[in-house]
Specification:
Blueprint (H helix, E strand, L loop, with lengths): L3 E4 L5 H12 L3 E6 L7 H14 L3 E5 L5 H15 L4 E4 L14 H29 L2 E6 L13 H21 L4 E8 L18 H9 L5 H12 L7 H12 L8 E4 L6 H18 L14
Parallel strand pairs: 1-2, 1-4, 2-3, 4-5, 5-6, 6-7
Helix pairs in contact: 1-2, 1-8, 3-4, 4-5
């Protein structure tokens, strides 16, 4: 069955790959991004070109995840056009790289806004429609850093992704009785095929960062990047993340996995998440809330 899908942060990277893969799987896909008539106009043109070439239903829509009004408007436009919304994919995010001390509190807040608060804006816009339908799917693109090995110089980003993952886990249990499923996709470190490292933000406090560069952490940034590259297999392909999401969307109701790891580096996140997810599930059963672990079939 063709689903109506919106994915945030789809101008490039994972978002663009996922949008195209879902469109090829014969879904109606809204690749959302901000400034569709400005800085992202070339990405809009590329998406239109791709849709025409492959004869798929890939569309773009303006959605600034930092704006509640923008999220509301985008979701309303989609529901008005189709009368429904089936899948929401939280993919928008931003990475920064450098010593944690050199980032200002305002930078931390901005990163938390993009990676975490953005999902709340989109959820508040979209979930009323999914709840009215009595069915839907919310997919969160997390990170293996929320549970696996985490090298230094990525602390603000890792902290934000961990917060988003924690939010996704609890949200899932608050939606099952509405007939809404949740799947958390956990990509590992991909050093190629995305713009994560190329577009990573840097510390605003240049003087503080310079103290690290001139001290015992001289050359440390290169050490981290080289270390990442050394453990990523040569055949690691970021399209595996898109393939995993396509498979989740295509899986029948009630059979979708709660968490899917796509980690070529095997940094241990799969092991840790298996334990933590099991512990959380056991607690729910102990307090009589085991039904929250599976979506309820709702008749509307």
């Amino acid at each position: 069955m063709k689903d109506v899908i919106i994915i945030t942060g789809a101008s490039s990277g994972f978002g663009a790959l996922v949008a195209r893969a879902l469109a090829r799987a014969v879904h109606t896909v809204y690749a959302s991004m901000r400034e569709t008539a400005g800085r992202n106009a070339p990405q809009v043109a590329e998406a239109q070109k791709y849709a025409a070439k492959h004869n798929v239903d890939l569309r773009t829509i303006d959605l600034d995840v930092a704006s509640e009004a923008s999220a509301d408007a985008a979701i309303e436009a989609i529901v008005t056009a189709h009368g429904r919304l089936d899948v929401v994919i939280h993919n928008a995010g931003h990475m920064v790289f450098g010593p944690a001390e050199a980032f200002t509190p305002e930078q931390f807040a901005e990163l938390y806004d993009v990676n975490v608060l953005s999902t709340q804006r989109v959820n508040r816009a979209a979930l009323p429609q999914l709840r009215r339908q009595g069915q839907g799917l919310v997919i969160w693109v997390s990170s293996s850093s929320s549970a696996g090995g985490t090298p230094p110089y990525l602390a603000p980003y890792f902290a934000a992704k961990a917060a988003m993952d924690a939010l996704a886990v609890v949200y899932a249990r608050e939606l099952t009785r509405w007939g809404i499923e949740t799947s958390i996709i956990v990509p590992g470190a991909f050093t190629g095929g995305t713009n994560h490292f190329a577009r990573a933000g840097s510390p605003a406090d240049k003087a503080r960062a310079a103290e690290y560069d001139a001290g015992p952490y001289a050359g440390f940034a290169d050490q981290v990047l080289k270390g990442f590259v050394s453990i990523v297999p040569a055949d690691a392909d970021v399209s595996a993340v898109a393939d995993a999401i396509v498979q989740v969307v295509g899986t029948p109701f009630g059979k979708r996995p709660f968490r899917v790891h796509v980690d070529p580096t095997q940094d241990g996140a799969e092991v840790v998440n298996a334990v933590s997810d099991r512990v959380r599930a056991e607690l729910l059963r102990r307090i009589g809330l085991g039904d929250l672990l599976a979506p309820r079939k709702v008749l509307t």
